[in-house]
């Protein structure tokens, strides 16, 4: 439906008293049918177009914000578990003193020691967050990519808006609240004790400010002791780490060619590669090359800054897997598998670096439509695959691909139940639907100042919005009749004194009274 403000989903958000009421069933329904990304992209793009100041982008409690919050809670719960839970558990169990407000300092506590304890916790949590980009669920990455694109197109003169559009959710509405109230995000079984809660509050404030990338961060704190503490983190390396993290989680493999997004450097460094063998015959030797990965391509050249000798588009990376040591008698090797069974064999400098490259290459390519499901864990040498001994070089893989990362967490959602909830909301807010319909009529015939009672509604196209409202009201009416018929049929089959409704059952007596009132009303 165009414009988006004329869609049934947007209208539901307009008539509900709280946006959260509408967001919960909408998000669950769209997740169930695999349409959450286009839905959020559409309502987010519409909101961005209405935003005048880039500093206020996605800062309100709009339908877009609430839908993204709900999506992160559902799809990102496992992500929080693997990222934050180990450190949160340690903070709750060890009880290190971290109070840095001189007024609240307990007897025997040392302010400098407390600051150091807090600094270490903040540093560790900041590091695990900014290193966790490869674990961020695909659905969240796709949403962040869409937010980034919309914001960059709307505010082309602001180079930072592509970051603030994403950080306003991942830091301000996801990580910071999870640190502040871990029990609400299933990170702890109950609310932490007062001392731990205070420690988590101080950590959450600092992480939120670090993630915001605001230019004058000390001014963000009302308390002077927080501004003093933040000086520990007032270094460019922290801002760079945040930007690299935001770049990674908002770099989707599902790009269109019209994207305005510039290539974002994700990782680079020297490694050793084996010649891919463009010629069928000839020596395939090993050479040291400078590798460079962006969200667009994976390249290598002789030295940093040289022209690329080879470029592999991200969409051509079909799998990234480890290579068994027996292949070339070399450790820390992995393979980048491309179309037509072409394989690039690479040796990293150590096992940690090999894992980092595998993780990040897998992350940026995990949405590719032609990703392989099987691969060969060993190389093809001397006329056969070392792993399965197959002689044809185009033999399909013999081992399932690891995938490397959990792309998404499957959710148990009942689509019919969520649809019923949406119907119930529309039914309960019928007076508002009718008032919105009146507002459409008023806007269509009157071009002057908007009447105050209609000013709360966002109506970009009165004619299209009226059409949608008419269909909603008619649909709700039809469903209400079917619900009433179902209740009548059930009432006829219900026996008082049965095992289901024994004599003296007050709920059954209430049910009879309600049915009598409905029947009388119908007459």
TrEMBL record:
Q: Name one GO molecular function term.
A: zinc ion binding
* Phylogenetic lineage: Eukaryota, Metazoa, Chordata, Craniata, Vertebrata
Family matches, as SMART domains: BTK (SM00107), PH (SM00233), RasGAP (SM00323)
What this protein is called in its record is: RASA3 protein
Please report the stretch or stretches of sequence annotated as the PH domain: 264-366
Coiled-coil intervals in this record? Answer: none
- Where is each Ras-GAP domain found? 18-212
Name any Gene Ontology BP term: negative regulation of Ras protein signal transduction
Name of encoding gene = Rasa3
In terms of superkingdom, the source organism counts as Eukaryota
Give the matching PANTHER family: RAS GTPASE-ACTIVATING PROTEIN 3, RAS GTPASE-ACTIVATING PROTEINS
Q: Keyword annotations for this protein?
A: GTPase activation, Metal-binding, Repeat, Zinc, Zinc-finger
């Amino acid at each position: 439906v165009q414009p988006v403000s004329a869609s049934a989903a947007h209208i539901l958000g307009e008539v509900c008293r709280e946006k959260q009421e509408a967001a919960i069933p909408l998000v669950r329904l769209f997740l169930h049918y695999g349409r959450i990304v286009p839905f959020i992209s559409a309502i987010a793009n519409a909101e961005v177009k209405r935003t005048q100041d880039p500093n206020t982008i996605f800062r309100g409690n709009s339908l877009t914000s609430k839908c993204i919050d709900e999506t992160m809670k559902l799809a990102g719960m496992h992500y929080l578990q693997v990222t934050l839970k180990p450190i949160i558990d340690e903070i709750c169990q060890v009880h290190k003193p971290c109070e840095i407000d001189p007024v609240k300092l307990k007897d025997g506590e040392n302010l400098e020691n407390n600051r150091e304890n807090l600094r270490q916790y903040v540093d560790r949590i900041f590091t695990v967050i900014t290193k966790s980009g490869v674990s961020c669920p695909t659905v969240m990455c796709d949403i962040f990519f869409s937010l980034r694109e919309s914001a960059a197109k709307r505010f082309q003169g602001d180079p930072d808006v592509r970051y603030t559009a994403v950080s306003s959710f991942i830091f301000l509405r996801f990580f910071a609240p999870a640190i502040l109230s871990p029990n609400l995000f299933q990170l702890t079984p109950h609310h932490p004790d007062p001392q731990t809660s205070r420690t988590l509050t101080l950590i959450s404030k600092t992480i939120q400010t670090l993630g915001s990338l605001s230019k004058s961060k000390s001014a963000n704190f009302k308390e002077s002791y927080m501004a003093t503490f933040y000086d520990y983190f007032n270094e460019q390396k922290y801002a760079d780490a945040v930007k690299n993290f935001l770049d990674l989680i908002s770099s989707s493999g599902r790009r269109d060619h019209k994207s305005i997004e510039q290539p974002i450097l994700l990782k680079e460094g020297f490694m050793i590669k084996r010649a891919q063998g463009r010629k069928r015959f000839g020596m395939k030797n090993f050479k040291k090359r400078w590798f460079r990965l962006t969200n667009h391509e994976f390249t290598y050249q002789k030295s940093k800054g040289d022209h690329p000798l080879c470029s592999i588009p991200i969409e051509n990376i079909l799998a990234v897997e480890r290579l068994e040591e027996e292949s070339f008698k070399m450790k820390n090797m992995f393979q980048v598998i491309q179309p037509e069974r072409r394989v690039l064999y690479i040796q990293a400098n150590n096992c940690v670096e090999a894992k980092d490259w595998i993780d990040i290459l897998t992350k940026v390519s995990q949405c590719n439509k032609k990703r392989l499901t099987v691969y060969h864990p060993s190389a093809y040498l001397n006329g056969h695959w070392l792993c399965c001994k197959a002689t044809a070089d185009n033999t399909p893989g013999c081992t399932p691909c690891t995938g490397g990362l959990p792309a998404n967490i499957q959710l148990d959602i009942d689509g019919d139940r969520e649809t019923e909830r949406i119907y119930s909301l529309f039914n309960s807010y019928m007076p508002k639907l009718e008032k919105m319909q009146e507002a459409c009529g008023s806007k269509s015939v009157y071009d002057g100042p908007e009447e105050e009672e209609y000013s709360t509604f966002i109506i970009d196209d009165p004619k299209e919005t009226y059409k949608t409202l008419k269909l909603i009201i008619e649909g709700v009416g039809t469903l209400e009749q079917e619900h009433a018929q179902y209740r009548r049929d059930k009432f006829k089959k219900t026996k008082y004194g049965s095992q289901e409704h024994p004599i003296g059952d007050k709920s059954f007596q209430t049910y009879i009274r309600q049915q009598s009132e409905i029947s009388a009303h119908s007459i």
